[in-house]
Amino acid sequence: MTKINDKFAIVVSKFNEFITEKLLDGCLQTLIKNGITKDTIDIVKVPGSFEIPTAAKALLDLNKYNAVICLGCVIRGETSHYDHICTAVSNAIAQLGVSYSTPVIFGIITSENVNQALDRAGGKVGNKGTEAAISAIEMISILREIKDNSLCKTTYQ
Ligand code: INI
Prior knowledge:
The protein has 157 residues and is an alpha/beta fold. Helix content is 46%, strand content 22%.
């Protein structure tokens, strides 16, 4: 379970904002539905997905967030730009979570086209922002259980 004073940071990309605003909505609604209050959520908007890890690291350095949720949308174009962004950002986000022992959640759509992105931003395949919020809540709980040595023993069976 998350605690009343758990603090969340959301880093959201303004690139493809027509998609990322839907991810942010889904994320906020899910956090609030799970009892998290608005005053414990900080939102940072960055130019594009490539800038997400830099902002996420600066937030982690403040040492006050229980989870950092990263939201963005990268859509394949005609050049290899897409591959460079996806590889750099996914690796950096994974590395931050490992380095800081804090959930850093990958809520970034990587899609071939706009329709695939819309499907994953509240369309027929769900909402990546909602999934990211649930993953953050779940990971806070798992890391807390590990630190408190109170992991449910059935986990190992
Ligand atoms: N940023 C995205 O978040 N999504 C994209 O699809 C995208 N494309 O296609 O170019 C994109 N580019 C901008 C990039 O993230 C940086 O903001 C830019 O390169 C400056 O560092």
